[in-house]
Design a protein that fits this description.
Largest sheet: 7 strands, mixed
Order of helices and strands: EHHEHEHEHEHEEEHHEEHEEEEHHEHEEH
Radius of gyration: 23 Å
Distance between the termini: 42 Å
Helix content: 40-55%
Number of domains: 2
CATH topology of the largest domain: Aspartate Aminotransferase, domain 2
CATH class of the largest domain: Alpha Beta
Bound molecules: pyridoxal-5'-phosphate
Structural class: alpha/beta
CATH architecture of the largest domain: 3-Layer(aba) Sandwich
Strand order of the largest sheet: 2-8-7-6-5-3-4
Length: 403
Amino acid sequence: MKNIYLDHNATTPVLPEVADAMDTYFRKEWGNPSSIHWAGRGAKSALSEARDKVAAFFNCTPVEVIFTSSGTEGDNHALKGVALQKQPKGNHIITTAVEHPAVLKTCKYLEKTGFEVTYLGVDQDGMLSLDELKAAIRPETILISVMYANNETGTVFPIKEIGEIARANKVLFHTDAVQAAGKFPLDVKELNVDLMTISGHKIYGPKGVGALFVRRGVRLVPMIHGGHHERNRRGGTENVACIVGLGLACEIATRDMEKEVEHVRFLRDRLEKGLMENTPHTKLNGHPELRLPNTTNISFEFIEGEGMLLNLDMLGIATSSGSACTSGSLEPSHVLLAMGLTHEMSHGSIRFSLGRSNTEEDIDRVIELMPPIVKRIRQMSPLYSEETDGAAEITYSDKCNVK
Ligand code: PLP
Protein backbone atom coordinates (compact mmCIF):
# COMPACT_ATOMS: atom_id res chain seq x y z
CA MET A 1 0.00 0.00 0.00
CA LYS A 2 1.45 3.34 -1.04
CA ASN A 3 1.29 6.11 1.53
CA ILE A 4 -0.36 9.32 0.34
CA TYR A 5 0.63 12.56 2.02
CA LEU A 6 -2.02 15.30 1.84
CA ASP A 7 -0.91 17.41 4.81
CA HIS A 8 1.60 19.82 3.29
CA ASN A 9 0.25 22.77 5.30
CA ALA A 10 1.46 20.95 8.42
CA THR A 11 4.90 20.33 6.99
CA THR A 12 6.61 19.45 3.72
CA PRO A 13 9.32 16.84 3.08
CA VAL A 14 12.84 18.25 2.79
CA LEU A 15 13.94 18.23 -0.86
CA PRO A 16 16.92 15.91 -1.44
CA GLU A 17 19.03 18.75 -2.89
CA VAL A 18 18.26 20.84 0.22
CA ALA A 19 19.29 17.98 2.53
CA ASP A 20 22.49 17.48 0.48
CA ALA A 21 23.38 21.18 0.71
CA MET A 22 22.83 21.15 4.47
CA ASP A 23 24.92 18.05 4.99
CA THR A 24 28.14 19.92 4.17
CA TYR A 25 27.52 22.27 7.12
CA PHE A 26 27.23 19.37 9.57
CA ARG A 27 30.18 17.35 8.30
CA LYS A 28 32.71 19.74 6.75
CA GLU A 29 32.00 23.40 7.39
CA TRP A 30 31.09 23.06 11.06
CA GLY A 31 32.80 26.28 12.18
CA ASN A 32 31.19 29.17 14.01
CA PRO A 33 30.32 31.90 11.48
CA SER A 34 31.41 34.55 14.01
CA SER A 35 34.97 33.15 14.18
CA ILE A 36 37.50 35.01 12.10
CA HIS A 37 39.83 32.01 11.67
CA TRP A 38 39.78 29.39 8.90
CA ALA A 39 37.18 27.20 10.59
CA GLY A 40 34.53 29.91 10.58
CA ARG A 41 35.10 31.43 7.18
CA GLY A 42 33.19 28.80 5.16
CA ALA A 43 30.21 29.01 7.53
CA LYS A 44 30.24 32.80 7.38
CA SER A 45 30.15 32.92 3.61
CA ALA A 46 27.38 30.27 3.54
CA LEU A 47 25.35 32.41 5.92
CA SER A 48 25.83 35.44 3.75
CA GLU A 49 24.89 33.52 0.58
CA ALA A 50 21.74 32.17 2.25
CA ARG A 51 20.81 35.67 3.41
CA ASP A 52 21.11 36.91 -0.18
CA LYS A 53 18.77 34.13 -1.34
CA VAL A 54 16.16 34.85 1.32
CA ALA A 55 16.41 38.58 0.56
CA ALA A 56 15.77 37.81 -3.12
CA PHE A 57 12.70 35.80 -2.03
CA PHE A 58 11.36 38.88 -0.18
CA ASN A 59 12.71 41.36 -2.78
CA CYS A 60 14.51 43.21 0.01
CA THR A 61 18.12 43.87 0.97
CA PRO A 62 20.08 41.26 2.97
CA VAL A 63 20.27 43.48 6.09
CA GLU A 64 16.47 43.42 6.23
CA VAL A 65 16.47 39.64 6.90
CA ILE A 66 16.62 38.21 10.44
CA PHE A 67 17.01 34.45 10.71
CA THR A 68 14.78 32.86 13.34
CA SER A 69 14.13 29.39 14.77
CA SER A 70 10.63 29.11 13.24
CA GLY A 71 7.55 30.85 11.92
CA THR A 72 6.38 31.00 15.52
CA GLU A 73 9.46 32.95 16.58
CA GLY A 74 9.13 35.32 13.61
CA ASP A 75 5.54 36.13 14.56
CA ASN A 76 6.45 36.56 18.24
CA HIS A 77 9.37 38.81 17.37
CA ALA A 78 7.32 40.98 15.01
CA LEU A 79 4.44 41.48 17.45
CA LYS A 80 6.26 41.76 20.77
CA GLY A 81 9.20 43.59 19.21
CA VAL A 82 6.99 46.31 17.68
CA ALA A 83 4.71 46.49 20.73
CA LEU A 84 7.58 47.08 23.17
CA GLN A 85 9.37 49.47 20.81
CA LYS A 86 6.26 51.54 20.12
CA GLN A 87 4.73 51.40 23.60
CA PRO A 88 5.44 55.07 24.31
CA LYS A 89 3.46 56.01 21.16
CA GLY A 90 0.45 53.73 21.52
CA ASN A 91 -0.86 50.44 22.83
CA HIS A 92 -3.37 49.25 20.21
CA ILE A 93 -2.88 46.32 17.83
CA ILE A 94 -5.25 45.08 15.13
CA THR A 95 -5.32 41.46 13.97
CA THR A 96 -7.91 38.90 12.85
CA ALA A 97 -9.76 36.18 14.73
CA VAL A 98 -8.41 33.53 12.32
CA GLU A 99 -4.64 33.95 12.75
CA HIS A 100 -2.33 31.09 13.64
CA PRO A 101 -1.83 30.63 17.42
CA ALA A 102 1.68 32.07 16.97
CA VAL A 103 -0.03 35.45 16.44
CA LEU A 104 -3.23 34.95 18.47
CA LYS A 105 -1.53 33.73 21.64
CA THR A 106 1.10 36.44 21.37
CA CYS A 107 -1.72 38.99 21.19
CA LYS A 108 -3.41 37.41 24.23
CA TYR A 109 -0.11 37.71 26.09
CA LEU A 110 0.29 41.34 25.05
CA GLU A 111 -3.25 42.06 26.30
CA LYS A 112 -2.17 40.86 29.75
CA THR A 113 0.72 43.32 29.71
CA GLY A 114 -1.29 46.45 28.95
CA PHE A 115 -1.90 46.35 25.18
CA GLU A 116 -5.33 46.46 23.58
CA VAL A 117 -6.04 44.16 20.67
CA THR A 118 -8.89 44.30 18.15
CA TYR A 119 -9.64 40.90 16.61
CA LEU A 120 -11.39 41.50 13.29
CA GLY A 121 -14.05 38.95 12.41
CA VAL A 122 -14.41 37.24 9.04
CA ASP A 123 -17.37 36.36 6.83
CA GLN A 124 -18.58 32.86 5.89
CA ASP A 125 -15.73 32.56 3.35
CA GLY A 126 -13.15 33.47 5.98
CA MET A 127 -12.58 36.92 4.43
CA LEU A 128 -12.17 40.15 6.39
CA SER A 129 -13.76 43.51 5.57
CA LEU A 130 -11.39 46.34 4.65
CA ASP A 131 -13.99 48.85 5.86
CA GLU A 132 -13.99 47.20 9.29
CA LEU A 133 -10.22 47.31 9.29
CA LYS A 134 -10.19 51.04 8.47
CA ALA A 135 -12.81 51.72 11.15
CA ALA A 136 -10.72 49.86 13.76
CA ILE A 137 -7.66 52.12 13.34
CA ARG A 138 -7.25 54.62 16.19
CA PRO A 139 -4.64 57.29 16.92
CA GLU A 140 -2.95 54.86 19.35
CA THR A 141 -2.81 51.96 16.83
CA ILE A 142 0.81 50.84 16.41
CA LEU A 143 0.53 47.61 14.42
CA ILE A 144 -1.72 45.68 12.06
CA SER A 145 -0.98 41.95 11.74
CA VAL A 146 -2.95 39.99 9.14
CA MET A 147 -1.87 36.63 7.74
CA TYR A 148 -1.29 36.35 3.98
CA ALA A 149 -3.13 33.02 3.73
CA ASN A 150 -4.98 30.97 6.30
CA ASN A 151 -3.42 27.62 7.16
CA GLU A 152 -6.75 25.82 7.71
CA THR A 153 -8.95 27.05 4.87
CA GLY A 154 -6.38 28.58 2.52
CA THR A 155 -8.33 31.86 2.27
CA VAL A 156 -5.97 34.55 0.94
CA PHE A 157 -6.21 38.07 2.36
CA PRO A 158 -5.79 41.29 0.31
CA ILE A 159 -2.34 42.04 1.66
CA LYS A 160 -1.44 44.82 -0.80
CA GLU A 161 -4.63 46.74 0.02
CA ILE A 162 -4.16 46.24 3.77
CA GLY A 163 -0.59 47.51 3.38
CA GLU A 164 -1.87 50.65 1.61
CA ILE A 165 -4.35 51.30 4.42
CA ALA A 166 -1.66 50.78 7.07
CA ARG A 167 0.75 53.09 5.30
CA ALA A 168 -1.86 55.83 4.75
CA ASN A 169 -2.51 55.72 8.51
CA LYS A 170 1.21 55.53 9.46
CA VAL A 171 0.69 52.18 11.19
CA LEU A 172 3.22 49.33 10.84
CA PHE A 173 2.01 46.24 8.98
CA HIS A 174 3.11 42.66 9.65
CA THR A 175 1.98 39.65 7.66
CA ASP A 176 2.44 36.00 8.53
CA ALA A 177 3.29 34.60 5.09
CA VAL A 178 4.17 31.10 6.33
CA GLN A 179 1.52 29.42 4.15
CA ALA A 180 1.67 31.83 1.20
CA ALA A 181 5.41 31.31 0.71
CA GLY A 182 6.10 29.23 -2.37
CA LYS A 183 2.58 29.82 -3.73
CA PHE A 184 2.62 33.59 -4.23
CA PRO A 185 5.52 35.97 -4.86
CA LEU A 186 6.39 37.65 -1.56
CA ASP A 187 7.49 41.02 -2.89
CA VAL A 188 7.49 43.16 0.24
CA LYS A 189 7.77 46.39 -1.76
CA GLU A 190 4.85 45.54 -4.01
CA LEU A 191 2.80 44.44 -0.97
CA ASN A 192 3.54 47.53 1.20
CA VAL A 193 4.63 45.30 4.07
CA ASP A 194 6.90 46.36 6.97
CA LEU A 195 7.38 42.92 8.52
CA MET A 196 6.88 39.45 7.05
CA THR A 197 7.31 35.97 8.55
CA ILE A 198 8.26 32.77 6.72
CA SER A 199 9.16 29.26 7.89
CA GLY A 200 11.55 26.74 6.30
CA HIS A 201 9.53 23.56 6.73
CA LYS A 202 6.50 24.77 4.75
CA ILE A 203 8.58 25.24 1.59
CA TYR A 204 10.45 21.90 1.45
CA GLY A 205 13.21 23.18 3.70
CA PRO A 206 14.16 22.06 7.22
CA LYS A 207 12.19 22.50 10.43
CA GLY A 208 13.42 24.80 13.18
CA VAL A 209 14.39 27.68 10.92
CA GLY A 210 12.60 30.71 9.52
CA ALA A 211 13.12 34.31 8.57
CA LEU A 212 11.60 37.64 9.47
CA PHE A 213 11.73 40.54 7.01
CA VAL A 214 12.03 43.85 8.85
CA ARG A 215 11.92 46.92 6.61
CA ARG A 216 14.95 49.16 6.98
CA GLY A 217 14.13 51.89 9.50
CA VAL A 218 11.67 49.76 11.49
CA ARG A 219 13.08 49.22 14.97
CA LEU A 220 12.19 46.20 17.11
CA VAL A 221 13.03 45.31 20.68
CA PRO A 222 14.95 41.99 20.41
CA MET A 223 13.32 38.89 21.84
CA ILE A 224 16.51 36.93 22.42
CA HIS A 225 19.29 38.87 24.09
CA GLY A 226 22.84 37.67 23.69
CA GLY A 227 25.75 38.22 21.32
CA HIS A 228 25.94 40.54 18.33
CA HIS A 229 24.31 38.06 15.97
CA GLU A 230 21.85 39.25 13.35
CA ARG A 231 23.08 42.84 13.87
CA ASN A 232 22.13 42.77 17.54
CA ARG A 233 18.54 41.88 16.69
CA ARG A 234 18.60 38.20 17.71
CA GLY A 235 21.24 36.64 19.93
CA GLY A 236 22.44 33.06 19.41
CA THR A 237 24.94 31.35 17.12
CA GLU A 238 23.24 30.95 13.78
CA ASN A 239 21.89 27.52 12.80
CA VAL A 240 24.11 27.47 9.71
CA ALA A 241 23.04 24.15 8.16
CA CYS A 242 19.32 24.95 8.46
CA ILE A 243 19.83 28.50 7.23
CA VAL A 244 21.64 27.11 4.17
CA GLY A 245 18.65 24.79 3.67
CA LEU A 246 16.21 27.68 4.02
CA GLY A 247 18.11 29.78 1.48
CA LEU A 248 18.13 26.98 -1.08
CA ALA A 249 14.45 26.16 -0.40
CA CYS A 250 13.56 29.83 -1.11
CA GLU A 251 15.53 29.77 -4.35
CA ILE A 252 13.85 26.54 -5.49
CA ALA A 253 10.41 27.82 -4.44
CA THR A 254 10.81 30.83 -6.73
CA ARG A 255 12.20 28.71 -9.57
CA ASP A 256 9.38 26.15 -9.42
CA MET A 257 6.47 28.30 -8.23
CA GLU A 258 4.54 28.59 -11.48
CA LYS A 259 4.80 24.89 -12.31
CA GLU A 260 4.00 23.76 -8.78
CA VAL A 261 1.00 26.04 -8.39
CA GLU A 262 -0.45 24.77 -11.66
CA HIS A 263 0.17 21.15 -10.61
CA VAL A 264 -1.38 21.37 -7.13
CA ARG A 265 -4.31 23.48 -8.30
CA PHE A 266 -5.22 20.90 -10.96
CA LEU A 267 -5.07 18.06 -8.43
CA ARG A 268 -6.81 20.04 -5.67
CA ASP A 269 -9.72 20.92 -7.98
CA ARG A 270 -10.01 17.29 -9.07
CA LEU A 271 -10.05 16.12 -5.45
CA GLU A 272 -12.55 18.75 -4.34
CA LYS A 273 -14.93 18.01 -7.20
CA GLY A 274 -14.59 14.24 -6.80
CA LEU A 275 -15.23 14.30 -3.07
CA MET A 276 -18.09 16.74 -3.11
CA GLU A 277 -19.86 15.07 -6.03
CA ASN A 278 -19.57 11.57 -4.57
CA THR A 279 -20.52 12.39 -0.97
CA PRO A 280 -23.80 14.00 0.11
CA HIS A 281 -23.95 16.58 2.93
CA THR A 282 -20.59 18.25 2.37
CA LYS A 283 -19.61 21.91 2.55
CA LEU A 284 -16.51 23.66 1.25
CA ASN A 285 -14.87 25.87 3.89
CA GLY A 286 -12.89 28.88 2.68
CA HIS A 287 -13.10 31.39 -0.11
CA PRO A 288 -14.22 29.78 -3.40
CA GLU A 289 -11.63 31.71 -5.47
CA LEU A 290 -9.24 33.60 -3.19
CA ARG A 291 -7.66 30.47 -1.77
CA LEU A 292 -4.28 28.74 -1.65
CA PRO A 293 -4.03 26.57 -4.77
CA ASN A 294 -3.10 23.46 -2.75
CA THR A 295 -5.72 23.60 -0.01
CA THR A 296 -9.27 22.33 0.31
CA ASN A 297 -11.13 22.16 3.60
CA ILE A 298 -14.39 20.22 3.52
CA SER A 299 -16.95 19.62 6.28
CA PHE A 300 -18.68 16.26 6.20
CA GLU A 301 -21.94 16.58 8.07
CA PHE A 302 -22.75 14.02 10.80
CA ILE A 303 -19.18 12.79 11.16
CA GLU A 304 -16.33 13.37 13.57
CA GLY A 305 -13.23 14.58 11.71
CA GLU A 306 -10.87 12.75 14.04
CA GLY A 307 -12.60 9.42 13.30
CA MET A 308 -12.28 10.11 9.62
CA LEU A 309 -8.63 11.01 10.02
CA LEU A 310 -7.87 7.73 11.80
CA ASN A 311 -9.72 5.71 9.17
CA LEU A 312 -7.77 7.43 6.41
CA ASP A 313 -4.51 6.92 8.30
CA MET A 314 -5.16 3.18 8.43
CA LEU A 315 -5.22 3.31 4.63
CA GLY A 316 -1.97 5.26 4.52
CA ILE A 317 -3.62 8.61 3.75
CA ALA A 318 -2.37 11.57 5.83
CA THR A 319 -4.73 14.55 6.23
CA SER A 320 -5.66 16.89 9.03
CA SER A 321 -8.91 17.70 10.81
CA GLY A 322 -10.57 20.92 11.92
CA SER A 323 -10.25 20.00 15.56
CA ALA A 324 -7.20 20.40 17.69
CA CYS A 325 -6.55 17.91 20.41
CA THR A 326 -5.80 19.95 23.52
CA SER A 327 -5.21 18.04 26.73
CA GLY A 328 -7.29 15.10 25.59
CA SER A 329 -10.38 17.11 24.58
CA LEU A 330 -11.23 18.03 21.02
CA GLU A 331 -11.46 21.76 20.48
CA PRO A 332 -13.28 22.83 17.34
CA SER A 333 -11.23 25.01 15.00
CA HIS A 334 -11.28 28.70 15.99
CA VAL A 335 -11.04 29.53 12.28
CA LEU A 336 -14.15 27.60 11.29
CA LEU A 337 -16.10 28.88 14.31
CA ALA A 338 -15.15 32.46 13.37
CA MET A 339 -16.60 31.75 9.90
CA GLY A 340 -19.93 30.90 11.51
CA LEU A 341 -19.78 27.10 11.31
CA THR A 342 -21.57 25.13 14.01
CA HIS A 343 -19.47 23.01 16.37
CA GLU A 344 -20.72 19.88 14.54
CA MET A 345 -19.70 21.14 11.09
CA SER A 346 -16.40 22.34 12.44
CA HIS A 347 -15.69 18.96 14.06
CA GLY A 348 -16.56 17.23 10.79
CA SER A 349 -14.03 19.10 8.70
CA ILE A 350 -11.00 17.64 6.96
CA ARG A 351 -8.17 19.69 5.46
CA PHE A 352 -6.40 18.27 2.44
CA SER A 353 -3.24 20.18 1.55
CA LEU A 354 -1.42 19.03 -1.55
CA GLY A 355 2.20 19.24 -2.58
CA ARG A 356 4.63 18.75 -5.41
CA SER A 357 4.93 14.96 -5.16
CA ASN A 358 1.17 14.18 -5.27
CA THR A 359 -0.10 12.47 -8.40
CA GLU A 360 -3.43 11.97 -10.17
CA GLU A 361 -3.40 8.34 -8.95
CA ASP A 362 -3.13 9.56 -5.32
CA ILE A 363 -6.11 11.82 -5.79
CA ASP A 364 -8.23 9.20 -7.54
CA ARG A 365 -7.50 6.72 -4.77
CA VAL A 366 -8.70 9.19 -2.14
CA ILE A 367 -11.81 10.01 -4.18
CA GLU A 368 -12.57 6.28 -4.36
CA LEU A 369 -11.86 5.48 -0.71
CA MET A 370 -13.52 8.41 1.06
CA PRO A 371 -17.26 7.97 0.32
CA PRO A 372 -17.55 4.45 1.85
CA ILE A 373 -15.66 5.60 4.95
CA VAL A 374 -17.96 8.60 5.35
CA LYS A 375 -20.97 6.32 4.91
CA ARG A 376 -19.72 3.87 7.53
CA ILE A 377 -18.96 6.58 10.09
CA ARG A 378 -22.34 8.18 9.49
CA GLN A 379 -24.10 4.87 10.05
CA MET A 380 -22.52 4.74 13.50
CA SER A 381 -23.32 8.36 14.34
CA PRO A 382 -26.25 9.14 16.66
CA LEU A 383 -26.61 12.44 14.79
CA TYR A 384 -27.45 10.73 11.48
CA SER A 385 -30.55 8.86 10.34
CA GLU A 386 -30.02 6.50 7.40
CA GLU A 387 -33.79 6.28 6.92
CA THR A 388 -34.17 9.97 6.13
CA ASP A 389 -30.57 10.49 4.97
CA GLY A 390 -30.43 13.47 7.29
CA ALA A 391 -30.24 14.57 10.88
CA ALA A 392 -31.46 12.08 13.44
CA GLU A 393 -34.18 13.24 15.76
CA ILE A 394 -32.53 13.23 19.13
CA THR A 395 -35.11 12.67 21.84
CA TYR A 396 -34.94 14.09 25.33
CA SER A 397 -34.12 10.66 26.80
CA ASP A 398 -31.22 10.22 24.31
CA LYS A 399 -29.82 13.55 25.39
CA CYS A 400 -30.08 12.62 29.05
CA ASN A 401 -28.54 9.23 28.56
CA VAL A 402 -25.12 10.55 29.45
CA LYS A 403 -24.14 9.29 32.85
N1 PLP B 1 1.93 30.71 10.88
C1 PLP B 1 1.18 29.90 10.13
C2 PLP B 1 0.13 30.48 9.24
C3 PLP B 1 1.39 28.53 10.16
O1 PLP B 1 0.64 27.71 9.40
C4 PLP B 1 2.41 28.01 11.01
C5 PLP B 1 2.63 26.55 11.11
O2 PLP B 1 1.75 25.76 10.87
C6 PLP B 1 3.17 28.92 11.76
C7 PLP B 1 2.90 30.25 11.69
C8 PLP B 1 4.26 28.44 12.68
O3 PLP B 1 5.40 28.06 11.97
P1 PLP B 1 6.49 27.09 12.63
O4 PLP B 1 5.91 25.72 12.57
O5 PLP B 1 7.70 27.26 11.79
O6 PLP B 1 6.69 27.57 14.02
